TrEMBL record:
Residues 444-469, 482-506 are annotated as: Disordered. InterPro entries: ATP-dep_Glu-Cys_Ligase-2 (IPR051680), CP_ATPgrasp_2 (IPR025841), UCP005522 (IPR016450). Residues 494-506 have a biased composition (Low complexity). It comes from Rhodococcus antarcticus. This is Circularly permuted type 2 ATP-grasp protein. Residues 60-436 form the Circularly permuted ATP-grasp type domain. The lineage of its organism: Bacteria, Bacillati, Actinomycetota, Actinomycetes, Mycobacteriales. It holds the Pfam family CP_ATPgrasp_2.
C-alpha cells in the first residue's frame, strides 16, 4: 500500500482514504461480519482434517489497470507456450529430438503419463483452466513461482470473497472502478463446450468430483451450479463401447465433456490405481476414441512439475520465438551436478522444495532450519537430486492485514486463473491473493494456516470492461453459496481416497 518513503501508492489512495478514519471497533465489526458470512454460506476448507471457514481479510489487494495489462499478457504467453509443449511431448516430441530439453527430464517425471500419448483434443486445448502463482519480489517485480495445470483450486474463493466484501463494504465498491469477477463460470462453460467433438451440437458437460470428503468440494459444487451442469461422482458414470454415460432418473445419458477434479492416478482404474473407487473405468479409452473430452487433459502434470517449470522460458523461446514477459523465480536444479553442489553448500540460505510437493508441505526454509534439519535435507537431496529444487528467499510483498486490533504487514502471493476456449485465453481479473497470517511467515497456503484477500483490478479510464459498480448490483448477480449435498453413506475406502487425492486442492 505504501512507498518506501511512507506515501500511499496511487492504486491504494481511495482505499486508504476510506479506511484511515476507521477505529479498531469499526474494523472488528466488519471483520466479524466477513467471518459470519462465510460460516453461514458453508465456505470452508480442510485444515488438519477439520472443516474451517476460509479466513478472508478485510483489506483488499489493489492492482492498477496498467500493471494488470502486463500481467495478463505474460500469463497468456506462458499458457500458450505450455500448451504447445504438452501437445509436443505427447506427440512428436520435437523439443526432445532437437535437444532443447533433455529426454530424461520428461521420462523421470512422475506425472508424465504414456497413457496420454497420441490423445489429441478436438480443439487442441489441454489446459482448459490454469492457475499461475505469482509473487512480487523486493524490487517490485512480479515473478512466476509455479504453474498449476491439473486442477488448480481457489476460484470459488475469488467469487465468494468479492460477493462477501460487497455486502460488508458497499461504499468502497461504489467509489472504486473494480473489474468484475462474477462471470468466471460463463467463460469456463464456454471453454468446456468448445472442447467437445465438432459433430456434437449440444454437448453434455459434467463436473466430476471425488466427493464430499475432498477439501475443495465446495468449489466443485459451486462451479457445477453456476454453469448449470451436473455434479457427479465416479459411481454416477460408466463406460460402454468406449463411450461415457451418466446414470439419471430418466435413464442413460451420453457425456461429452468431463471437467474432472480428480487426480490422474484415481481417474481410471483400468490404467492407473486399480483399487480406485473415485474414477470411471474405461474413460481413457473413451477419450482416445474421441467420444469424450477430459478437462484438464490427462498428463498435464508434466507441464507443472517444479523442475520442468524451470525450463518454461526455454519453451517460450522455442515454441513462440518470444522473450518471456514474466520471469521465473531464480531456481537451482538439484539434478544438475554444479547447481546441486551449490545447493548443498548454501542450504542454510535457500528455500528447498520437493518437486512433487504441494500445499506448502515438505518445504525447508534454510535460514530457519536447525543443524539436524539441514543435515536431513542434504541427505535427501543426495539420494534423490531429481526430487528437489531450491530458490533464494524471496521477500514477498506485503499488504496491510488485520491481526488483532491492528493493521500490520503480511506477505502475499497471487494466483490468477486463465481459461482457454481454443480461440483465446481469458484471464480472470485479479485472481486469488493468499496471505500468510503468522508474522514473518512466507507460506501462504490455506493448508498451512494462510488466509485470503479480495483482489481488485482497477478498470482503466474509458475501459468498457464490466465493473463492480456497487455492492447491491454485485450481490444480485452472483448466486448464493451452496450447501454440501451428501449422497449415500461412504465406504471407508471411498472416504480415504477422497481425502488422499489432491486434484482439487493444488
Amino acid at each position: 500500500m505504501f512507498h518506501h518513503d511512507g506515501s500511499v501508492r496511487p492504486p491504494y489512495k481511495g482505499l486508504h482514504a476510506a479506511l484511515a478514519p476507521s477505529d479498531a471497533a469499526d474494523l472488528a465489526t466488519r471483520s466479524d461480519a466477513l467471518g459470519r458470512a462465510f460460516v453461514d454460506q458453508g465456505i470452508t476448507f480442510s485444515l488438519s482434517g477439520q472443516e474451517r471457514p476460509f479466513p478472508l481479510d478485510l483489506v483488499p489487494r489493489v492492482i492498477s489497470a496498467a500493471e494488470w495489462t502486463k500481467l495478463e499478457k505474460g500469463i497468456v504467453q506462458r499458457v500458450r507456450a505450455i500448451e504447445a509443449f504438452l501437445a509436443d511431448v505427447y506427440g512428436e516430441q520435437e523439443i526432445l529430438r532437437d535437444g532443447v530439453l533433455p529426454k530424461r527430464l520428461i521420462t523421470s517425471c512422475e506425472h508424465f503419463h504414456r497413457e496420454a500419448a497420441g490423445i489429441v483434443p478436438p480443439n487442441g486445448v489441454r489446459i482448459h483452466v490454469s492457475g499461475i502463482d505469482l509473487v512480487r519480489d523486493a524490487q517490485g517485480t512480479f515473478r512466476v513461482l509455479e504453474d498449476n495445470l491439473r486442477s488448480p483450486s481457489g476460484v470459488s474463493y475469488v467469487m465468494e470473497n468479492r460477493r462477501t466484501m460487497a455486502r460488508v463494504f458497499p461504499d468502497l465498491f461504489a467509489s472504486h472502478k473494480v473489474r468484475a469477477v462474477g462471470d468466471y463460470a460463463n467463460h469456463l462453460l464456454r471453454a468446456l463446450r468448445a472442447s467437445a467433438a465438432s459433430n456434437v451440437a449440444d454437448p453434455t458437460v459434467v463436473v466430476l468430483t471425488p466427493g464430499v470428503a475432498n477439501s475443495a468440494y465446495f468449489e466443485h459444487s459451486l462451479l457445477a451450479r453456476q454453469m448449470g451442469v451436473e455434479l457427479v461422482e465416479g459411481r454416477d458414470l460408466f463406460c460402454r463401447d468406449n463411450t461415457v454415460y451418466m446414470r439419471t432418473t430418466e435413464g442413460e445419458r451420453q457425456v461429452d465433456v468431463v471437467y474432472r477434479r480428480i487426480d490422474d492416478e484415481y481417474l481410471d482404474p483400468m490404467h492407473f490405481k486399480p483399487d480406485s473407487v473415485l474414477g470411471v473405468a474405461g474413460i481413457i479409452n473413451a477419450a482416445r476414441a474421441g467420444n469424450v473430452v477430459i478437462s484438464s487433459a490427462v498428463g498435464n502434470g508434466v507441464g507443472d512439475d517444479k523442475l520442468v517449470y524451470t525450463y518454461v522460458p526455454t519453451m517460450i523461446d522455442y515454441y513462440l520465438g518470444e522473450k518471456p514477459l514474466l520471469a521465473n523465480v531464480d531456481t537451482f536444479r538439484c539434478w544438475l551436478d554444479e547447481e546441486c553442489t551449490e545447493v548443498l553448500d548454501r542450504a542454510e540460505e535457500l528455500v528447498i522444495k520437493p518437486v512433487e510437493g504441494s500445499g506448502g508441505y515438505g518445504i525447508v526454509f534454510g535460514p530457519d532450519a536447525g543443524p539436524r534439519e539441514l543435515k536431513a535435507i542434504r541427505k535427501k537431496i543426495r539420494e534423490d537430486p531429481r526430487g528437489w529444487i531450491a530458490q533464494p528467499v524471496v521477500q514477498l510483498s506485503t499488504v496491510p492485514t488485520k491481526i488483532g486490533d491492528e493493521l500490520v504487514p503480511r506477505h502475499v502471493d497471487l494466483r490468477p486463473f486463465a481459461v482457454n476456449d481454443g480461440d483465446g485465453i481469458w484471464v480472470l481479473p485479479g485472481g486469488l491473493t493468499r496471505v500468510a497470517l503468522p508474522e514473518d511467515s512466507l507460506v501462504v497456503n490455506s493448508s498451512q494456516g494462510g488466509g485470503s484477500k479480495d483482489t481488485w483490478v482497477l478498470a482503466g479510464r474509458g475501459s468498457t470492461d464490466e465493473r463492480e459498480l456497487a455492492g447491491e448490483e454485485l450481490v444480485s448477480e452472483v448466486p448464493l453459496g451452496v450447501e454440501a449435498e451428501h449422497g449415500p453413506e461412504l465406504s471407508a475406502l471411498q472416504e480415504q481416497q477422497q481425502q488422499q487425492q489432491q486434484g482439487g486442492g493444488r
